[in-house]
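Quick one: structure for this chain?
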Amino acid sequence: MYDDTNKLIVWQKAHELVLKTYEITKDFPKDEQFGLTSQIRRAAVSIPSNIVEGKARGSNKEYKRFLLMARGSLEEVKYQLFLAKDLNYIDEEKYKGVLNLAMETGKLLAGLIKKLD
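Got it. Here's what it folds into:
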């Protein structure tokens, strides 16, 4: 599946982050369905999607470019989670749990980007 990209720990963590994001956002207010809920889900899905697409491009230069886009999407997710916490859509405990997963994903992304330099 996905040219074995799914065996990469960074992809696995990014996928886990997507699943966690969907779980958390299902409890967001209904009036956020086309706002923050949609935006945070789209940004989260973009992370593993860019990892897969970059790997499929076949060159380290392209792979790195897509990993950098994944990192940008990750930063979006981190901010949107912070916003959701400040809007009281998620409690502090859920926020810290998903933020830790996001931070771990970020460290793995940074390591893979550095490896491609």
